[in-house]
Amino acid sequence: MESMSKRHLEMVQELEENFQMTMQENQDCTVQKIRSHYQNKLNTLRKILDIYQEKVEKKKANWEAKVETLKAQNELLLKEQRAERKRSMEEALQWHREKSKMLELFSNRLDALHSQQASTLQELQMARQEIGKVQEMLVVSTQEQQETTGEGENLEIEGLSAQQQTRDCSDSDKPLEGAKARLEELKESLYQREREITELLEAERSPIPPVPQPPCGVLLSLVIHKAHEICSAVPETRALLDQMIEDNRVALASARNKLDRLKNVQEESNDREDATDKEGSEKYNSNLSLLQETVKEIEVCQIALGCIKNGESPVMNDCAVSELEDILGQEASQTTGGVKSAGQQLLLLQDQLKQEKEEKKKIIENYTSERTLRKKYYNMVEDMKGKIRVFCRIRPASRAEAAQGGAIVVEKIDEYSVTVETPRGPREFQFDKVFSAEASQEDLFHDTSRLIQLAIDGYNVCVFAYGQTGSGKTFTMVGDKEQKNPGIIPRAFNAMFDIMRENSSKFSFKVSAYMLELYNDRLQDLFASQAGEAHVHTQSHGQARRVEIKRNRKGVVFAQGAETKEASSAQELYALFQQACANRHIS
Ligand code: ADP
Ligand code: MG
């Protein structure tokens, strides 16, 4: 019986051992299978992620290159514009110089005309006085002659020879003849003067033809403008101008009359079909063209004088330009053409600039939409990485640990796994990322910083550290005391405010914070319990205000009753954080 029960027991033990072994094997097998399954999945996901990231990088590079070329184009265009502006300024300067020259010429000519006119008038006056004197002399000599004739009759009666009488008579005629000759002479000089005056007046009637034509049609308006200024400043000139306009009007009317008459004559002769006189028709044609030219010239004078009087500038639209071209002839047309082409070039460049600007705007729009898309993909990638990511950081052994002869039992195998030595042998653990003891604070932050952009884009982001006391949570999150190696929190504050600064032209940001501590299963408001402020946050019955975690209608989790503080810079926010840290329960 005893041996049987012993055998039974042995059998049961054997069975149990067998069962244990099989179970262990099965478990190991299943674990292995699950692990490899997830590993495969993870690998595929990583590959997809890599592809996406590559694509995003490529697109980014593409757009950046486009923006660069656009910038270069813009630069080039700006350079061209500057050169064009410089050129037009130089041209304007040249025109100004020529205008001054023209004005000087004009005023010199006017001065010369005035002085000539004045001297001629003086001479005329003198001539008139002389004529008066000569006439007086003439009257006196006629009287003398009459007296002498009377005396001769008496002498004849007294018996003097007829011959003597005649001689005496001819002697007394001598001064009369001299006076007559003098009169003729004076008359001749008077006529001469009158002719000169008429010529001068003729010259004044058409003051522009004697002045050399401006090399540039545009100058006309400047000259007119200046002339108007002179006319309005000097009253004599105004009177002269009025006279000139009147004379010009008369001259224009007579020239037009002549032209009409000439045309009528030609028509009549055509009616009579008297085409045999070839020479006559040629003469007529040259006369006609001469007359037409004169009419044109006088018309220009009329327009210019009108403009000078009213102080207007001739309008240089296309129609007016063509009119002026007609009137002024080819020279003016060439110069106005030059001006037109320069203006057209400027307009063309402006058009080009406008087009380029529009294109740039379009590209920027494209770039923005592409960026939005990139962000969307990025978020997708982030989602694929998993909403909860667990990182593992191995801290180096402290001096005390090394002094005690402690061994390192954790080892990083690859980017994603670590092994830990246990009493039952090494155990492997998988993470989303593993940081070795050599990893710096920057390395840690590198993978966290992207989450800050996400937070600014409107996602809820939570970063937290867990581990036993002394494992390095505070070092990782805050950094060392002297902040020689700042941790995730101060770095995140800086990154956050950097992003906000970059986008300050597009959005307005407000940063507010609250800070809580979970202590003895109750939430403590670390801002509220700050020195000297505690009484504000206590309710009437003496109890501290309760802070409760709630969810609002939009599903956003918030701490009801917690005090919120605003910060306008990373430094301000970090100061708030430090103040709150000082209120934590420590022992
Ligand atoms: P916990 O906050 O988890 O209790 P601590 O952050 O205070 O741990 O770290 C304990 C000690 O180890 C501190 O003296 C800290 O400076 C040091 N320490 C932690 N992590 C590191 C690291 N990665 N490199 C150097 N020293 C570290
Ligand atoms: Mg700590």
Quick overview of this protein structure:
With 587 residues, the protein is mainly alpha-helical. It has helices at residues 2-157, 162-205, 219-233, 235-271, 278-310, 318-328, 330-385, 399-403, 441-456, 473-477, 488-502, 570-582; strands at 391-393, 410-412, 417-422, 425-430, 433-435, 511-513, 516-519, 522-525, 548-551, 557-560, 565-567. The chain is rod-shaped.
Main sheet record: 3 strands, antiparallel
Radius of gyration: 57 Å
Q: Treating each run of at least 4 consecutive H or I residues as one helix, how many helices?
A: 12
Classify the beta-strand content into a percent band: 5-15%
Q: Structural class, judged by helices and strands?
A: mainly alpha
Q: What is the ordering of alpha helices and beta strands?
A: HHHHHHHEHEEEEHHHEEEEEEH
Small molecules (ligands, ions, cofactors) in the structure: adenosine-5'-diphosphate, magnesium ion
Strand order of the largest sheet: 2-3-4
Helix content: 55-70%
Rounded average pLDDT: 79
First-to-last CA distance = 65 Å
Form type: rod-shaped
Q: Low-confidence parts, pLDDT < 50 over ≥5 residues?
A: 151-175, 207-216, 330-336, 531-542
Total strand segments: 11
Keywords: ATP-binding, Coiled coil, Cytoplasm, Cytoskeleton, Motor protein, Nucleotide-binding
GO biological process, one term: microtubule-based movement
Organism: Astatotilapia calliptera
Protein name: Kinesin motor domain-containing protein
